Amino acid sequence: MHYPVFIVLGALSAAAHSVQLDAGIQDFRVISPAQEDLTWLEKYGAQIDQPFSGPLSFSHLPYSRCLENPDEAFDIAILGMPFDTGVTYRNGARFGPYAIRSGSRRQRESRGYTMAWGTNPYEHGLKIIDCGDVPVSPFDNALAVDQMEVAYSTLLKHDTVNATTPSGTPRIVSLGGDHTIVLPILRALNKVHGPISVIHFDAHLDTWPAYAGTTTDQSRVTHGTFFYLAQEEGLLANNSIHGGIRCKLEGVSDLQNDQEVGFQIISTDDIDDLGIPEIVRLIRARIGDSPVYLSVDIDVIDPGSAPATGTPEAGGWTTRELKRIIRGLAGLNFVGADLVEVSPSYDHAEITGIAAADFIHDFLSLFIAEEPPQPLHRLPVVTEKDEL
Ligand SMILES: [Mn+2]
């Protein structure tokens, strides 16, 4: 019964405003004539960025060109790697960092609390900034891979404000780019941590030795071979794990090779047969307290929920399922994370960019939480009945 009354009042109010408009625009203003000369700052305060406005940084965070700013201390950096010339099918992930930042525009530090985590990652005294993008060559992959390694190594040397890793180095969340970017990242992390484990969510193994047509050392470096190369270089510990695998294979030999590279497989279907708690348990048991790197290929998500990617595979996990698995991993010794393979020209209504940006928010919470959160923080249920 209240709704119609409200609507009538709204209509009356609008009518009253139009009368005022006829009398002149001054009548609309909320200030007295004496306040006419107030500046924006005096009258309205800070020039805030709204969700749909402002320069583009992840979650409206402070933006710094950290690569030319060695004194820029931070605890967690967002870093774009717009490299997409290592792909086997659709390119376009060079626009991934842009799409993920754009998908984050409704996020902000002051509105970062989630019921699922029961916390706001921006309220833990850590300095979290957007360090922009690595200027990678789109013409020369060997050069680009070196540029990404140098950039990552450079940022790892920056001072922290409140160091959160045992090594005292800051953490970097990388926005791909195609999955090849993980090779230079693992090379850079190896200099600090030695061999590390990887938790890898993807539809594909990415442990293949080479593709048909490989004739040069450089042509071995692709978004489907980088883990093989990393293992060959001694960058990986022998206890990594994939989640969400469902791609087609040459045969069982691919699985044997994958095992030799150091991975255990959790398939896409395992989520139905084992459930999320058991998947979380398997990953935690595999990783233990090893330094671990988290790599999420957005193609692990079903193309219906994340269509904008280079090598889509039908029948994947939902965004919600992976978010719950990620929450279950809190407390492991994460040294960095990435989200790769967002190729926004294949997107619809920013579905993929928004999902990817949401995962980045989860990464920040994951880095901070010491253990998995209890499911859904709610206020106590009020039990008294209102007699009306
Ligand atoms: Mn991949």
TrEMBL record:
CDD domains: Agmatinase_PAH (cd11592). Gene3D superfamilies: Ureohydrolase domain. Pfam families: Arginase. Keywords: Hydrolase, Metal-binding, Signal. Residues 1-18 form the signal peptide. SUPFAM superfamilies: Arginase/deacetylase (SSF52768). One of its GO terms (molecular function) is agmatinase activity. One of its GO terms (biological process) is putrescine biosynthetic process from arginine, via agmatine. It comes from the Eukaryota. Belongs to the arginase family. Agmatinase subfamily. This is Arginase/deacetylase. It comes from Cylindrobasidium torrendii FP15055 ss-10. The lineage of its organism: Eukaryota, Fungi, Dikarya, Basidiomycota, Agaricomycotina.
